Amino acid sequence: MLEALSFTFVQNALIAGLLVSFAAGIIGSLIVVNRMVFLAGGIAHASYGGIGIALYFGLPFILGTSFFAVLSALIMAYVTLNQRNRIDTFIGLIWAVGMAIGIIFVDLTPGYNVDLMSYLFGSILAVTHEDLWFMGFLLGTIIFIVTFWYRDILAVSYDSEYASLRGINVKLFFTIILVLSALTIVIAIKVVGLILVIALLTIPIYIGEKLSNSLYKMMLLSGLLASIFTIIGLWISYTYDITSGASIILVSALSLFGFLTISKGFEKR
To answer: Which pLDDT tens digit goes with each residue over 139-151?
Structure first.
């Protein structure tokens, strides 16, 4: 694959993979410890509405999808904080409505959309310089927020009642985490696709959680693992000419299986 690095699109793919991996490692850790996986899944599938709207109006993918994903995240945050006993129903509703809106707008878009499959399963080799700038800006924003408000986020993530007693605005930080999750999902769609995005936000994090004793270490290790899985997945994708998103997730899943097998072996000892 070394000769492939001479191509600009491969360089962009590698940079994008690293940026998204660390963003996914940080935000994925917050999603897992805050038990937001189902919420993130709802946002991911609702984002298809943004993809359909972007295709229909000829908008940039990231612009249209980000707007729709953030809107979905805000709605889910409101429902979660105010209608907790009906959360499953509303998440399912937003999930279904977002998908339906996307399908309708795709149907209304003139001509056959050859890029549609790339949104579902990822197309990291199609990443542009503009995408890289957005990914870099988002990762920088995530790092700044998590670093600056780390203690508050830590308190909210592990004991929201204690955080509230300390005067921390739990609702605000919960909403911020969901919005950052939505934007991370949008950029991750470019790498692994809409269908596989939750796997990228959970598999490396599961391993990282088992090997860490703090949220900070969990985030860092999860980002490193996601980066390794992405690089290996890209190499397999390039070597055997198969879909990059599926390759990355398969490498992640096999790594998780190997980790669990080795862990059980040590437990028996």
So the answer is: 999 999 999 999 9
